[in-house]
Amino acid sequence: MGTVVQNRGKKTRDSGIELLRIILMLQVIFLHVCTYGGYYDTATEIGGSVEFIHRIIWLCCRCPVYVYIVVFGYFSVTSNKTLGSIKGKILKMYLPMYFYSVAIPFLGELFGLWTLTDSNKYRAFFPLTSKIWYFMTLYLLVLILSPFINRCLTRLSKREYTQLIVILFLLFSVWTLFAGLPETKGVIRLDKVISESEGGKSLYGFVFMYILGGYLRLHVKPHGGPKARYLIVYFALAIVNLALWYLVDGYGEVISYNSNPFCIIQGICLVLFFRELHFKSHAINHIASLNLGVYMIHEQYLARNFIWKKFDFHPQWIYHSHIKYLAKIAIACVVIFVVCALIEQVRVFLFAGVRFIYQKITDHFKTANAKE
């Protein structure tokens, strides 16, 4: 999934979107620092400028999950492949998922990092249905559905597609937001309509984002270069969101939704900016290819608990130096990314080695049979 350019007869990914993928994963890790590392609670406790800065940064990192799916839809919507022809992609996605689901808990127990319960052991062998990673489960389901979705979307006129986007935006974003606000949720409700929306963390929202990505690909023409206005709107919406947080009672309950309208529009702005950022970097492309591994390693529930016990974000740091505290958070994000990327690289080498040995064995038997 990515734009490609010709380089001496070889296809090379355009690195603009790949750079965006790396930024998105760092945003994901930052959100986990806030949630599991306690930065959100600490910043709120300290208050003042610390809380304000935290909220601004946090609101600029609210849309990475949805942007991944928008990018997925953007590059996949024009594919004419059938379910049968994407079996390789499905397997390529599922095998690392299965590997980490089994390897992390049992290796962790082997090295004394934790003790597995029977539930931990059973879950490890069913990563898709036990939702070890909600994102991976939904991503894989959207991948399976994508051939059918693509056939429908590419047959729509621009007007019909626009109407579909507006309806889905109102249903899965605007409606969801007002249904979560204390002042309006008694009048605007989701139960038995989209009862499992989970603030956008559901198959509904992921399919909507895939469809939105397809719309950007098919009906929003490139400009021929990155436009600063998209970044300006991106940051402006974070400020608007922050203002609503302070001014509207109960808005804090819905501001964290992936399906928040401001977050969705911010995500669109990021995609439209980075798709026009044309350059080639093998290093960036390779690092971006490790992203899902980074996510699966640090967000596996046992590894996650272990990681955030190691990173202490005690408020005492803030009293020594605001800059040191922010630096510690930045360092934590980078360290987690780098360490997980290195582990994923080992997994890639391991899988490549297994494929190489399998191919050699297969070729040997083919040669032996041909001689007979």
What can you see in these coordinates?
By secondary structure, the chain is mainly α. The chain is 70% helix and 2% strand. The protein has helices spanning 15-35, 39-46, 48-59, 64-76, 87-110, 118-124, 134-153, 158-180, 203-219, 228-247, 261-274, 282-289, 291-299, 301-310, 316-320, 322-371, and strands spanning 4-7, 10-13. The longest helix is centred in the C-terminal third of the chain and has 50 residues, at 322-371. The two termini are 44 Å apart.
Summarize the structure.
70% of the residues lie in helices and 2% in strands. It has 16 helices and 2 strands. The protein has a two-stranded antiparallel sheet with strand order 1-2.
Q: Which terms summarize this structure?
A:
372 residues; mainly alpha; 2 strands
Radius of gyration: 22 Å
Low-confidence stretches: 4-10
Give the N-terminus to C-terminus distance in angstroms: 44 Å
What's the β-strand tally? 2
The biggest beta sheet, please?
A: 2 strands, antiparallel
Average pLDDT confidence is 88
Task: Give the amount of beta strand, in percent.
Answer: under 5%
Q: What is the succession of H and E elements? A: EEHHHHHHHHHHHHHHHH
- Structural class computed from helices and strand pairing: mainly alpha
The shape, in one word, is globular
